[in-house]
Amino acid sequence: MTREQHLELVQLLGAIGLFNERGTLWSEATPERVEEVRAYFRQCLDNFIKRVGAEQLEPGLRAYLESERAVIDDSGEVYAKLLEERP
């Protein structure tokens, strides 16, 4: 993964985490709206994986990005790990 792709992924995971941690409350989103936003995030992650190439991702990271957890996660654990691993 290039430096630019790494940064893109960090920003995407940051947006997902922020939405899941606080955005649903700040925006007073309905359950339907939450699902719409998470579907959008799922599409963004899938597009990222396709562009970068699944084989270019570390297997654990790839499994996380392909999982449902990636779009509902509010822990920031993967985001923080990626920040530490900045190329």
- In whole angstroms, how far apart are the ends? 9 Å
Number of helices: 5
Tell me the radius of gyration.
13 Å
DSSP strand content: under 5%
What is the helical fraction, as a range of percent? over 70%
Tally of distinct domains: 1
For the secondary structure, the number of strands is 0
Low-confidence blocks of residues: none
Write the H/E string, N to C.
HHHHH
Shape: globular
Structure classification: mainly alpha
Mean pLDDT: 91
Tell me about the biggest sheet?
A: none
Helix-strand layout with pairing:
Blueprint (H helix, E strand, L loop, with lengths): L2 H24 L4 H22 L6 H8 L2 H4 L4 H8 L3
Helix pairs in contact: 1-2, 1-5
Keyword list:
single chain, mainly alpha, 5 helices, 76% helix, globular
Written description of the protein model:
- This protein has 87 residues and is an all-alpha fold.
- It has one domain.
- It is 76% helix and 0% strand.
- The protein is built from five helices and no strands.
- Helix 1 (3-26) packs antiparallel against helix 5.
- The longest helix has 24 residues, at 3-26.
- The termini are close together.
- The model has no long low-confidence stretch (mean pLDDT 91).
Q: What's the gist of this structure?
A:
This protein has helices at residues 3-26, 31-52, 59-66, 69-72, 77-84. The protein is mainly α and 87 residues long. The chain is globular and about 35 Å long.
